[in-house]
């Protein structure tokens, strides 16, 4: 009986031991993370950290959750905490260096990559990060040497060749850079930066058929990526081949029917070249084909307003507000339409609600100023325009409303 009681006390004691419990949370979190259940994993890791704030492995695992959820600040803080607790954690140092590139903190990125290499000299990722940081910092000779080391470590990876090529470009070694880009493509035909940068090099040298060939090959290699299609269309436009440009963008729409980056390309092109008739027809079609795409609907509404089809624009905008009465952009559009219909008092009410819900929305404040101006309240209008300029210092319409000529390139008549 005593032995049973002793075993029971031992089990109870283990269950209350913080070290045992934190390991249990770590194992449970790792299982959730492996299964892709990121929120559940994060909760388990946070439970472990509450028991032991200096448990480095749990901080690192929590950072992995944040990275996979694109919660960059959370990932950054957890990785910092990890390397603070474990300065020799090469994985954390490498992840931190990768993350720092998004904030353009190249010197910090270099320092972290160098620290990771000191722990793990054979790390391809750390070597590549060091090379790319030096390339961004302008240390081209160092970057070229480090890229060569990365290539020697993993010759089958394209990234090293691309960084080497970028360093060579900065040294005006154009033939060597071309060769390095070609080696990147040979290493991985699906690695877009290699092909796109090589095409850009050819374009800068006016070797346009070769640039076209690389863009076309990139589309074949990665058909679901819109970037090569957009680049090819831009090349055609620069050559005056508008029909080919339109065909390329129409192909993007057909090939990427579920990706807004692809299916709205040709409509955005029509807007950019000022073909309002084709743009309106295209976005009318897209709005029907993709009723859940709010961005498409917003663009279509703006096009309708630009053609003074206020009734049609209002009907579509009210559909948006029916689904989501708090949709700020739609509330602002409602105010704009009311102003243009001469119903400025109602517009003030609608726009006041919009800026209350989104006080940092410069467009909302500007349009509220317009509504105030129409109701004969110039002081209130000026106040809203000043807020708009404070939020967006280059907001041309707001600056003009205040009688200020913007310090950005305009036609002389704009400041008359």
Any overview of this molecule?
The chain has 416 residues and is an all-alpha fold. The chain has a domain at 326-416: Tetratricopeptide repeat domain (Serine Threonine Protein Phosphatase 5, Tetratricopeptide repeat, Alpha Horseshoe). The protein has 25 helices and no strands. The longest helix has 17 residues, at 18-34. It is globular, with a radius of gyration of 29 Å. Residues 1-14 and 407-416 have low confidence and may be disordered.
Number of helices: 25
Global outline: globular
The helix/strand class is mainly alpha
How far is it from the N-terminal to the C-terminal residue, by CA? 100 Å
Question: How would you summarize the topology of this molecule?
Answer:
Elements lengths: L1 H15 L1 H17 L3 H14 L4 H13 L3 H14 L4 H11 L5 H14 L4 H14 L2 H14 L4 H13 L3 H14 L4 H13 L3 H14 L4 H13 L3 H14 L4 H4 L1 H8 L3 H14 L4 H13 L3 H14 L4 H13 L3 H14 L4 H13 L3 H14 L4 H6 L15
What features would you highlight for this structure?
416 residues, mainly alpha, Serine Threonine Protein Phosphatase 5, Tetratricopeptide repeat, disordered N terminus
């Amino acid at each position: 009986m005593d032995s049973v009681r002793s075993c029971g006390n031992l089990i109870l004691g283990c269950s209350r031991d913080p070290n045992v419990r934190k390991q249990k949370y770590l194992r449970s979190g790792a299982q959730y993370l492996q299964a892709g259940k990121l929120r559940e994993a994060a909760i388990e890791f946070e439970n472990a950290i509450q028991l032991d704030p200096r448990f480095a492995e749990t901080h690192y695992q929590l950072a992995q959750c944040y990275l996979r959820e694109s919660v960059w600040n959370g990932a950054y803080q957890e990785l910092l905490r990890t390397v603070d607790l474990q300065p020799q954690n090469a994985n954390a140092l490498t992840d931190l260096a990768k993350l720092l590139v998004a904030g353009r903190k190249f010197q910090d990125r270099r320092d972290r990559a160098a620290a990771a290499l000191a722990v793990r000299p054979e790390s391809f990722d750390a070597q590549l990060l060091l090379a790319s940081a030096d390339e961004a910092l302008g240390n081209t000779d160092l970057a070229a040497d480090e890229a060569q080391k990365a290539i020697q470590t993993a010759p089958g990876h394209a990234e090293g060749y691309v960084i080497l090529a970028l360093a060579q470009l900065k040294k005006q070694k154009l033939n060597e850079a071309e060769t390095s880009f070609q080696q990147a493509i040979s290493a991985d035909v699906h690695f877009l930066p290699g092909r796109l940068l090589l095409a850009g090099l050819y374009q800068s040298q006016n070797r346009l058929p070769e640039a076209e060939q690389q863009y076309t090959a990139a589309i074949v290699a990665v058909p679901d990526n819109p970037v090569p299609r957009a680049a090819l269309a831009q090349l055609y436009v620069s050559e005056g081949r508008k029909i080919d440009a339109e065909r390329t963008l129409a192909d993007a729409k057909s090939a990427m029917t579920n990706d807004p980056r692809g299916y709205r390309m040709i409509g955005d092109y029509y807007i950019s070249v000022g073909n309002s008739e084709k743009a309106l027809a295209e976005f009318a079609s897209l709005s029907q084909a993709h009723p859940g795409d709010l961005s498409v609907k917003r663009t279509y509404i703006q096009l309708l307003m630009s053609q003074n089809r206020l009734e049609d624009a209002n009907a579509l905008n009210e559909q948006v507000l029916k689904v989501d009465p708090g949709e700020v952009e739609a509330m602002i559009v409602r105010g704009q339409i009311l102003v243009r219909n001469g119903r400025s008092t109602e517009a003030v009410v609608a726009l006041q609600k919009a800026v209350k819900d989104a006080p940092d929305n410069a467009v909302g404040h500007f349009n509220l100023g317009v509504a105030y101006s129409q109701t004969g309240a110039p002081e209130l209008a000026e106040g809203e325009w000043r807020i708009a300029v404070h939020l967006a210092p280059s907001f041309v319409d707001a600056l003009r409303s205040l009688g200020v000529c913007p310090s950005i390139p305009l036609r002389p008549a704009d400041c008359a």
